[in-house]
Amino acid sequence: MAEAERIIGTPDIPEAAGAEPEQSDGESGGAGAGTERPKGRRRIAVLFAVAALAYALDLVSKLIVVAKLEHHVPIEIVGDWLRFEAIRNAGAAFGFGEAFTVIFTVIAAAVIVVIARLARKLYSLPWAIALGLLLGGALGNLTDRIFRSPGVFEGAVVDFIAPKHFAVFNLADSAIVCGGILIVLLSFRGLDPDGTVHKD
Question: Per-residue pLDDT tens for 4-21?
């Protein structure tokens, strides 16, 4: 079990060579031995580094799209299968629910608050990456909601990645989807954000 936990990203344990949980306060044996496993380093820095990278890439890409592509002919990347086309989206990811812009803004803000609170007990590297992607993507689209027209908290998100027969999206949407998929996979494997592994 200790080896399996190490492979899937459980926290660093100071006594790397030992397979048994560390005994607290010098206790040897007894029913309470090993109940307080050392958690190693928290992964807050990783979470915010991933979030900052995802946010920066999304922000820069949107600035370029607005400056160079909006009101211009779409750019074909892979024939007509993939092109860059500037679209203003008032809905959620991939253009869904355009009538609920303010609601999606509130949801994005709530997601950011929840992730920030969860960071206090975050010891798993994979979870830090997943939550960082979610945080960066949510911040990217929330920035559009706040600062772009038609108004504060009602702004339309800039989308530009347009695959054939699919909705137009942006890098923030991609980060959110990738983070969500990773969270589902980690949950199936039984890995919790605090680094513990459980089996149903």
Answer: 444 444 444 444 444 444
Q: How many C-beta atoms lie closer than 10 Å to residue 194's C-beta?
A: 16
Residue 150: cis peptide before it, omega within 30 degrees of 0:
yes
What is the overall mean pLDDT for the chain? 79
The active-site residue, picked from 25, 159, 194, 200, is 159
Respond yes or no: is residue 159 known to be catalytic. Answer: yes
- Neighbouring CB atoms inside 10 A of 14's CB total 8
Catalytic residue among 12, 173, 192, 200: 173
Predicted confidence (pLDDT) at residue 159 exceeds the cutoff of 80: yes
Give the list of residues 6+ apart from residue 113 with CB closer than 8 angstroms, or none: none
- CB of 171 within 8 A of CB of 58? yes
**How buried is residue 139: exposed, middle or buried, by Cβ count under 10 Å (0-12/13-18/19+)?**
buried
CA angle 73, 78, 84 (to 5 degrees): 35
pTM of the model: 0.74
